[in-house]
């Protein structure tokens, strides 16, 4: 009897833990294909190069369809317990910060270069971006929807889940309804794959990229030796990553006297106090570690998107 009670309690605890498992935060956005096909593209300058990007703000202001479709998918995800960030709200926050960002520059006068999607991700702080493409098919009086859902890791842009399909033809002219009907047959498998990816991040850490560079007027480099044992700076940084990444997981992709590239760096999702942390806060700890004794190396931390951090050694 005691054994039976113990087994029952164990099963209940496992079930309770599973039901309370943390869900990834999502944000649904239309794909670049949809923006291009519907004439909602604009250009911006990126280090002298002109790039074509979606005009998110104009699309939400002018297209009732995009608002309805995003709301429909948001509803389907929310019903399944996945927390969502609202893209339209994120865009409003982004717009309020735009003037300040345009005025910001480094002490050397260099401007911040960041793509619109990177800026949007930074504001939304979602774990996963769901990129949605939909096409209306017309067959006489009937219509159907073809769709493509892509789940992208917001930090690495790696595709982690996908669902593609076409709904049954219908006399209904409501595109959001047709899309919902088409997606319903696939969404549970899609969500399961998203959750598996997030569970892996929870256990093994979030993947980011860390780059180390040096200012050309700095009198040190990654081969400079520190301490009584004369350990080179490059190895000191690797030792820090060994101790602070989840299970010591990272790859030293490239390292020279003036630069180092660490990929697949697995940072924890939460700190010791249980608070969520991002790549900037995680790499800031390495930045501070190098600034303090015994190294006393002034440095500058620069972020590109959510998941790529660069520490430039030798000054601000």
From TrEMBL:
Swiss-Prot/TrEMBL keywords: Signal
The UniProt entry, under Pfam families, shows: DUF6175
Keyword Signal on entry: yes
From the UniProt annotation, give the residues forming the signal peptide.
Answer: 1-21
The record ties this protein, via InterPro entries, to: DUF6175
Protein name per its UniProtKB record: DUF6175 family protein
